[in-house]
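name: query_chain
kind: protein
chains: 1
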Amino acid sequence: MIEVLKCKIDPVYSFLDYIKGGTQMNCVIAIDFTASNGAPSNPTSLHYLSPYQPNQYTQALYSVGDIIKDYDSDQLFPALGFGARLPPDGRVSHEFFLNGSTTSPYCEGIAGVMAAYQQALQTVQLYGPTNFAPVINHVARFATAVRDGTQYFILLIITDGVITDMPQTKEAIVNAAALPMSIIIVGVGEANFDAMEELDGDDVRLSSRGRVAERDIVQFVPFREFSRGTSAQAVEMNKARLAKEVLAEIPDQIVSYMKKTAIKPRPPLQRQPTLPTAPPT
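structure:
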């Protein structure tokens, strides 16, 4: 005979429980404008704007953006660029607003991000180095201000993968792992993406200066593996595979943050989407 003296039931909450309870997704897009991509006027450049076919950044932005846009409650996307010289003085920036504004980075829908990207290519100079840490820290400042489970931030970085601030990026990711945010890195081109795989942390949890990341918050996706074939069937299959890969870890990453911080989902409610407040200065 087994006698139960005490029993405790802990509910297991799902990603959808938090979404139904009003948790809002805020998707931020960051695009690599470094010289390693090649001059935009050169047809071999990853940023070349051909009148006949989209470049790899355009393809990745449309393909991945079309997937993550459904996660964003207001369809207004902060869009950043990094690694370019900006007019009029040629200063190098690693977190400039893609739309050219000095006050607001928001673009309306993925089409708005695309228009801002194409305009930026006409006005900035590709330069370098390729630093990820500034855009990660940029989003982390917003995430730091809202840690109660009402908002979660997803940073999409589209890059050729030639990173130059690996130690600083590791530090930024380890810090961000304690915040309500995830990072999706989409690699374009044919570069060696070993550094991106290391940041992903699927095999070995990322660490920096003796500190191990509290959660795995990075998902790396090599776009070239999902852009082969031109037939209608191949395109649809690639799109489905890409969607599965991009979204493979996001729901679990959100639940892991909520569980770690003991945040329970609110009862299902109707609420109007709002923009995140400005980070503390």
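note: Residues 109-123 form the longest helix (15 residues).
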